[in-house]
Amino acid sequence: MSRIGKMPIPVPSGVNVDIKGSLITVAGPRGTLSLNIPVLTGVENSNGQLLVTRKNDERSARAQHGLTRALINNMVKGVSTGFKKELEIIGVGYRAQMRGKDMLGLYVGYSHPVEFFIPEGIKASVDQKTNVITLEGCDKGLLGEVAAQIRKVRSPEPYKGKGIRYTGEVVKRKVGKAVVGGK
Questions:
Q1: Among 21, 75, 90, 158, which one is least packed by beta carbons within 10 Å?
Q2: 54 is a domain residue
Q3: How many separate domains does the chain show?
Q4: Is 62 exposed, middle or buried (0-12, 13-18, 19+ CB in 10 A)?
Q5: Is the pTM of the predicted complex or chain greater than 0.85?
Q6: Does residue 113 share a domain with residue 94?
Q7: How many C-beta neighbours within 10 Å does residue 47 have?
Q8: Which 3-state string (H, E, C) describes the chain?
Q9: Same domain (yes/no): 98, 57
C-alpha cells in the first residue's frame, strides 16, 4: 500500500467536496478546482475526510494511488489557504512593473521590456523597493508553471548571479577566467 496514498485528507470547514463519477470538484473561499480521477483509483468522502482507494494491486494502479491523493490534497489546501511563490530580480537596472492586473513588464537587460501575461487564477504583485514578484493562487500546478516561465525570461547566470530566481534559491557561483589564470 502506498504510504502517501493511504493517508486520509482532512477537509477543513468552509470547503465543499463534490464527487460525481470520476470527477471531483473542490470549492472553497479561494476558488473552485476540478480533477478527473484515474480509472484505477476511487475517492470516498467520510466523516470530513477524503480517502483515496485503488481498484487492484497492479503497478499502474499503485503509481496512480499516491499521485491522486497528492493532487486532491493540493486542491483542498489551495481552495482553503492558497499557495504563494516569490521571485527576486537581481541585477543593476533589473526591475519589474505591473501593467494593469494581468500584465507584467520585466526589464532584465534586453533592449526592450519583456511583456508577460498573467493567466486567470493567479494574482501577481511587485514590491518596487526589494524587486520581489509575489504570485498567489489556489492551483499549485498553474502557480508553479507561471513562476517557472517568469524565471525562464532571465535565468540566474553563474558568474555574476544576475537574473530572476526564486526567493531563497542558491545559485552556485563560478570563478571567472581572471582568477583561474596563470602563465
A1: 21
A2: yes
A3: 2
A4: middle
A5: yes
A6: yes
A7: 8
A8: CCCCCCCCEECCCCCEEEEECCEEEEEECCEEEEEECCCCEEEEEECCEEEEEECCCCHHHHHHHHHHHHHHHHHHHHHHCCEEEEEEEECCCCEEEECCCCEEEEECCCCCCEEEECCCCEEEEEECCCCEEEEEECCHHHHHHHHHHHHHHCCCCCCCCCEEEECCCCCCCCCCHHHHCCC
A9: no
Dist CA 107 CA 143 (whole Å): 22
Q: Which residue has the cell 521590456?
A: 113
Q: Any idea how long the chain is?
A: 183
Contact 170, 99 (CB under 8 A): no
Last residue of a domain, one of 80, 97, 127: 80
Contact between 82 and 30 (Cβ < 8 Å): yes
User: For residues 87 and 156, what is the distance between their CA atoms, to the nearest angstrom?
Assistant: 11
Question: How far is residue 79's CA from residue 74's CA, in Å, rounded to a whole number?
Answer: 9
Task: Give the tens place of pLDDT for each residue, 122-179.
Answer: 999 999 999 999 999 999 999 999 999 999 999 999 999 899 999 999 999 998 887 5
Other beta carbons within 10 angstroms of residue 26's beta carbon come to 26
